[in-house]
Amino acid sequence: MKVLVVGAGGREHALCWALARSSQLTRLWCAPGNAGIAKLAECVEIGAEDVAALVGFARAQAVDLVVVGPEAPLTLGLVDACAEAGIRCFGPSAAAAMLEGSKGFTREVADAAGVPGARWQRFTDPAAARAYIRDQGAPIVVKADGLAAGKGVVVAATIEQAEAAIAEIMESRVHGEAGATVLVEECLLGQEVSCFALCDGEDALPLGAAQDHKRAFDGDEGPNTGGMGAYSPPPVFTDALRDQVMAQIIKPTLAEMARRGTPFRGVLFAGLMITADGPKLIEFNVRFGDPECQALMLRLRSDLLAALLAACDGRLADVTLRWDPRPSLVVVMAARGYPGAYQKGTVINGLDRAAAVPGVQVFHAGTVRGPDWAVLANGGRVLGIGAVGETLQAARDAAYQAVDAIDWPEGFCRRDIAFRAL
Ligand code: AMP
Known about the structure:
The chain is about 30% helix and about 30% strand. The protein is built from 13 helices and 23 strands. Strands 10, 11, 14, 15, 16, 17, 19, 22 and 23 form a nine-stranded antiparallel beta sheet that branches. A five-stranded parallel beta sheet has the order 3-2-1-4-5. Strands 6-9-7-8 form a four-stranded antiparallel beta sheet, sandwiched between helices. The two termini are about 40 Å apart. About 50% of the residues are buried. Adenosine monophosphate binds near residues 143 and 155.
């Protein structure tokens, strides 16, 4: 099997790492990849959003499977373009990827499928939105309907804050046209969990769950980021809860998407609130989260390539996945200044020392090789230091021991990953 992975982050490094263990794999490419991925795969200089060039490469090399990491190429129709070219591609079609692109669409699908979630209403008129907010009371959640770079959500503790959010999103259009329509939602209370399922359009297999840390600094302070760390499984996510999520959220959503003529294949990522009334849906994403993917791949014992092929071919009903029962944890190391302005090209030393810590796996998220083969930072989030341990505490100790072995003065990380569970 010749496989092409699309993307350049820690998620794609973890996918390449898992795919590289498959006995079926004969050749692995990654477009565009990074310095860590280059140890496992041949990196190809094609951007993850250059659909035409990716399809051209896959055709020229007779690639058997394309695996798409990030959401952008999915929304741009990479899976559809591969299908037209007769190339197997793991991920949802552009139509099915709408589950991530519009919050209103997601809520419509979820309601039609009977998926438990927050009470919600959609508004294009600010006055009507304000009246609804006053009627419902606080706390309440205001969301821009469209993609707002992950920033279009305000969890308002008071009616005044919610009304201010309406003014900013709808009237000042701080997120542009994404704010032309807003959703006002009931505020769900509980623990947040990210839950992943491998889907073949009809059937789904649980891929595990994780909790992540979106804020930049310890104690959940500071600005929102792409994710500063994750661990799996979250102690709240019992086997019974997993079965409930599959039965009440994932499978009904698959059935509704199929009924609409846009069956969902790929990874369905459900952002859930575990409330006193059970799990409720906050949002869907249509791909693995990053760094959650790193935490999940550290625990997967089955052949990932075989599972992805089965998902593409509608054969998931015949597949079972085996998992390491031990917990995993990932600490993200980012360039100082991230998620604001940061420097690129700083030198990272000590990666081999870090990787030698028992139980540790170092994933690269944003690195390149310098002219003298030094590893250089090349992004905001730069490394994912993953570890598996007999206990979550042991995994965390190993991960931080590896972090401390890395010599990179221009980097930083949170020191409290998994604090909720410990
Ligand atoms: P979203 O972009 O929809 O995932 O929202 C971003 C974050 O806002 C989520 O991860 C939650 O922490 C929070 N959030 C969104 N919707 C709700 C809700 N209905 N109730 C409570 N918190 C929410």
